[in-house]
Amino acid sequence: MNSGDTAWMLMSSALVLFMTPGLAFFYGGMVRAKNTLGMLMKNYVAMGLVTVTWIVVGYTLAFGTDLGGGMLGGLDYLGLKGVAIDIAKGEQAGAIHGATVPDAVIMVFQMMFAIITPALISGAIAERMKFSAWAVFIAIWSIVVYAPVAHWVWSAHGFIFEHIKAVDFAGGTVVHINAGAAALAAVLIIGPRLGFRQSPIRPHSLPLTLLGAGMLWFGWFGFNGGSSFGANALAVNAFIVTQIAAGVAGTAWLLMEQFQHGKPTTLGFASGAVAGLVAITPAAGFVGYLAAVAIGVAAGVVCYLALQIKFALNFDDALDVVAVHLVGGILGSLLTGVFSESRINPSVLDGLFFGGGSTQLIRQTIAVVVAFGFSFIISFVLLKLVDAVIGLRITEAEERRGLDISLHEEQSYALTE
Amino acid sequence: MNSGDTAWMLMSSALVLFMTPGLAFFYGGMVRAKNTLGMLMKNYVAMGLVTVTWIVVGYTLAFGTDLGGGMLGGLDYLGLKGVAIDIAKGEQAGAIHGATVPDAVIMVFQMMFAIITPALISGAIAERMKFSAWAVFIAIWSIVVYAPVAHWVWSAHGFIFEHIKAVDFAGGTVVHINAGAAALAAVLIIGPRLGFRQSPIRPHSLPLTLLGAGMLWFGWFGFNGGSSFGANALAVNAFIVTQIAAGVAGTAWLLMEQFQHGKPTTLGFASGAVAGLVAITPAAGFVGYLAAVAIGVAAGVVCYLALQIKFALNFDDALDVVAVHLVGGILGSLLTGVFSESRINPSVLDGLFFGGGSTQLIRQTIAVVVAFGFSFIISFVLLKLVDAVIGLRITEAEERRGLDISLHEEQSYALTE
Amino acid sequence: MNSGDTAWMLMSSALVLFMTPGLAFFYGGMVRAKNTLGMLMKNYVAMGLVTVTWIVVGYTLAFGTDLGGGMLGGLDYLGLKGVAIDIAKGEQAGAIHGATVPDAVIMVFQMMFAIITPALISGAIAERMKFSAWAVFIAIWSIVVYAPVAHWVWSAHGFIFEHIKAVDFAGGTVVHINAGAAALAAVLIIGPRLGFRQSPIRPHSLPLTLLGAGMLWFGWFGFNGGSSFGANALAVNAFIVTQIAAGVAGTAWLLMEQFQHGKPTTLGFASGAVAGLVAITPAAGFVGYLAAVAIGVAAGVVCYLALQIKFALNFDDALDVVAVHLVGGILGSLLTGVFSESRINPSVLDGLFFGGGSTQLIRQTIAVVVAFGFSFIISFVLLKLVDAVIGLRITEAEERRGLDISLHEEQSYALTE
Amino acid sequence: MKLVIAYINPYKLDEVRDALKEAGVSGLTAANVEGFGRQAGHVETYRGSEYEVDMVPKVRIEVLTDDTLLPIIISTIERTARTGAIGDGKIAVLPVEDVIRIRTGERGREAV
Amino acid sequence: MKLVIAYINPYKLDEVRDALKEAGVSGLTAANVEGFGRQAGHVETYRGSEYEVDMVPKVRIEVLTDDTLLPIIISTIERTARTGAIGDGKIAVLPVEDVIRIRTGERGREAV
Amino acid sequence: MKLVIAYINPYKLDEVRDALKEAGVSGLTAANVEGFGRQAGHVETYRGSEYEVDMVPKVRIEVLTDDTLLPIIISTIERTARTGAIGDGKIAVLPVEDVIRIRTGERGREAV
Ligand SMILES: Nc1ncnc2c1ncn2[C@@H]1O[C@H](COP(=O)(O)OP(=O)(O)O)[C@@H](O)[C@H]1O
Ligand SMILES: Nc1ncnc2c1ncn2[C@@H]1O[C@H](COP(=O)(O)OP(=O)(O)O)[C@@H](O)[C@H]1O
Ligand SMILES: Nc1ncnc2c1ncn2[C@@H]1O[C@H](COP(=O)(O)OP(=O)(O)O)[C@@H](O)[C@H]1O
Fold first, then answer.
1. What is the CATH number that goes with domain A3-408?
2. D84 pocket-lining for ligand 1 (C-beta < 6 Å)
3. DSSP code string of E62-86
4. Model confidence, pTM
5. From ligand 3's centre to the CA of F38, what distance in Å?
6. Is domain E2-111 in CATH 3.40.50.1000, yes or no?
7. pLDDT of B407 strictly over 90
């Protein structure tokens, strides 16, 4: 066990946990004031529920000994059995990808990913979903959708990892495509907000959104930088390309706005930066600095254009989870196959751009399709079930009054006393 | 000196410092708008005053060579004499509990604890205490209450540590019971706010409270994780049980609300999570994952029920410092004696639940009683003195107008310009 | 390569990045509500633009092989050529000041400094500057002003470092004097806000300012602590004196307010703390704990008094960049020559106070003058050019309506829906 | 001349304003207010303490008008603000003695 | 019919509203306003610059009523809002020509 | 007695208030409102979606006065609030039947 690596993994775990409040504020600022707490709550509660599902079964389904075929982990770590630190016996380390840190720290690092992934979906169903239905949905989703996909992609014998040989450094498929596909399913089922496309629905506090973006950016260094499982050269690379992609994508988005509307916006910069962070996520341990520039530009431009999808298809993806996370995740996963360099990470082929041909790109494409298809279908079915049993949507009167009072009997702001 | 351990201790120290602004916002969101800055200030100023008292005498009283009987540290580190880094002589390390990091980093890590502990008390006297009285109170309190208790519990020859042999990993007694007992004394002396139990006193900005809760949760990884003094297996254990207890307690509190009122609240989730963090604090380096689940459930349920105390006894503990920190701290300290495992930390006996009998539980109980009694009595006397000399309470007119304008000549929000 | 040092440098880099959002909120809370987003944006965009300029030419101009005379770095790292992590060849480390961490992590750590430095200037021109002009200005400034000064002071062959032998641990000259001098130039050119000294211009949200101050304080541990390039004893020293100076200066500022106006303010505490952080920045790796107390007191008192400059000279330095960063930076740089101790850092002479005579103080003075003069002159010329080509200032109607709507077509708050 | 005051549901403001504009009204002023009436308020719960909030957010519209437009203004507001549920609000008509346009100094009907 | 406007101290709103309700008033509308009058404002200080703030936060209540209830409304407000300190505020009575309940179209006394 | 209502630009409030004070007005009440009129609003853009915002922030002033001071109040507001640009706002004068000072119970002219 290496104390420097362990220090970095502890810190990275804390940083990734901090992203969930960050996401809550990023989203929370974008809804109307009457729905602020409803939005924050849908994120915060993931820090409660998924902590529980992860320690009970999520972790073992994702990282337990493969049951065969690379489809699912076994129950050896059920209730975190065998993951505990046992000083007397010496710390266990190396079980997961031979890392030099205790297995337990990887368990908790991965827990933070399992928490934020379902939270990402909440942006799509903002301002209209029941809290009870949401709680049930994400608890089950974290087990039946998240854990399997994490196993496929990140477990040593997961079929995407071992057989398809697609790579995903920090969660392009596992986190972003996965959540984005579920968001798409959710939007299709739950339908648009009252007044969608009729009356303006404005962000109630962009400072909160900017704050959330800052927290996300900060936390993302742990998200990507920690995915190397140590304070090593790969972590440094991941850290740097994360910064580059975020900065470049934010700038690119601003330029798109400048060209299309003549005014750059703060929401635009924040959105672009997040899009860049999403797109670099799968690539961070495989691509170099200039590739990060390219990925940043692509993320800023493509995700910006993808905003139009919801108007074209007329569905109300309230806070653009599809445009940013699904599209950004797909983009990043594919561009990993274009810009990967074995020089940076021997575990990957050189990408299309570096003379490695299209092999890695094809692998990436397969992984994208598999992850999207699985997540979309299972999420769709699960949401239909929850809808049938509990009902996904609040009443019209509740929606008018706002989630804060209707669902939580609280008011977000009382500034006049 | 180990660089990995040092990296983690530096980071942990920064994280614990970050908790004081976190606490400021957690509390600040719960008061009325006109008292926001007054609330924030009572926390922020601790980062100024206690820094000074700690370097001058606090540290040496707590961690200086024991004067005999384990009651107080000597003056060997007065004004941080002898704590300085001396490159030429080589860094000093190991003086405190044989840690592998420079003594100086432990000094600053402990400083952050000394800062946040009096800040915790501010929630109890919210919306009605003079700033001058507060400043004088916490400066003295950090010396005459905090430093001795820290010595008893955490110094190698402190009597609770050495003789009673009670354990407190990261501050169940030193921080939470200590602050909670002082809060109780303060509430009894200062009396209720104008309008307490007559007119509604609502939180003015729950988003700020949620933000603060997120910052606290994040920082607590340093609080508990750093209390192992290195990036070691114990840190990993402390980190994980911290996350588990917070998540579980937040969820448990929500369920209590659901059962009692039919509506889960965001303030409830945040409160529950903080209660869980409090309760796991003394236990973090001694208990395993499933014990953390149990402690989380207990914290969520018991602290929720403890809210009723203030209505039963009719005292105005404005932001529930007693219910969360005193009750949560006692709960965690006692449950440490129930769930401790020598397998996890050889320096502790197995607890009641693990076949070790009630020895450790009895020790814990004694420590709880001693810490509570000492803090309550000395705080009470000190507050009475401050009241006599300066006066604790603002005038009725000042209270009506709000602390921001009355005490600080500032306004928290001017949103219409 | 040392993993503990690398962990700390990664973390420090993340912390310094987090300071830019922190600064955005520190400033953003102080402007009127209608200019909030305009203020946030001027900071956030630095995270985009300067990321780009730094990787393209900034880094190589600052840290490339000296072109001769210690004036500028060569183009060896153009586009980050040669900085990449190359696993096969082994990580490169030690190129910069013989550090034990990969060169690339120092590159990104320094990038974060290059980002926040121009952002600091934004406080001076608050509430009236065009966004386009700002974007162009900071992009160019980061190349023609920041990079050279960084080279002079921090590159092994920079002329201030090598020939003048002035020291600057974490950016007294490079960051604070540099930005402060540019701020002064900017204020003189752009002129006062409409209504300056006629009608009250109040902070719209001091809670945001306090939040920003908390984020800055937290991040500053990376800023100063990371400037030792490892988790070593020097980092510990820098960390501790940072905390001391911030706490003491905040307290000192409060006392000044108490004496002058009878009321301590939250804005005062935050301002004082930031002033203390600024002043300790150049000194952090050279001075001891008690010197940090002295520097903190000096910063709190002198920067407080320096607020009067703008009224005396009748220029509208909106958020007091000159009083806090220029004056604080000069103060800290000079006091480094007073309180430096070779015992703490062998690379520096003992200062005036420790019997080393005035040699170091004279060196520091020269560096201050050179950095101030260069930055002021080049910034002045650059701003004049930008003014001629784009125009620095928005129209009167735009200023009245506010930057948010005028420049970004956004509204910061919509709290009534 | 008259001053028409109407208390309406906030989410009806856009609709009412657009309809009034179409009906020939050249200006109006709106403010966020809290209304108390037959419409039930709501309960808020903070750490187990329940608070009854009797006041409901409403928007208060004010239209200065000459007498000829009055009937159409009233009927327009009635039509667009009505949902049929309790809380739709009220309209009041007050006499006005004079109106002045600040910019031009015009008075009376011209000023509206 | 009449429109009663009252400017009162914010912390008196609940008491006044409850008393009016008891007195038979079926509805009212309140808004946050800032008042200028005999009552002193306060000073704010930001980084050493002092600002005099002359305006004091008040609540403005509006009650539409038929004439019979008018005296009791006035006396109720007087009684409950009075503290005896400067700044207790004022009550004004304005004539109203018509009142309409939007939900039902009722007019006049029925509508109040 | 009269009630003078004026809608003015927010940044004119201080000037108008000071001038009224000088003219002998002993009190007034102000509120933040949104105005719709000839003055153009603005466009907001969020993630590429444009919203036309027709309402412009204004301040609404209310002055209770006896009839003698009325002309000077009107002319003072006209003078200080006028910039000559569209959006300067309007003044309306309404009849008032009674005014009561809550603190003392004074009525009519004394109460203003
Ligand atoms: N007498 C009154 N005076 C002033 N405002 C009133 C009065 N009665 C009702 N209102 C306003 O009208 C709103 C709607 O009234 P309410 O009685 O709830 O419903 P409805 O008008 O449909 O019967 C209230 O919220 C309040 O703002
Ligand atoms: N002439 C007036 N017109 C409109 N509002 C007024 C007038 N005079 C006072 N007010 C309102 O009444 C409030 C209290 O008035 P003030 O003169 O301070 O105290 P008091 O009414 O007790 O003498 C003011 O804050 C203001 O809102
Ligand atoms: N008929 C009206 N009734 C009520 N308020 C009005 C009316 N017309 C205008 N206003 C108010 O006056 C403000 C200025 O009006 P506007 O037509 O824009 O400019 P101007 O008065 O200079 O012609 C508006 O924003 C609105 O608040």
1. 1.10.3430.10
2. no
3. EEEE-GGGHHHHHHHHHHHH--SST
4. 0.97
5. 7
6. no
7. yes
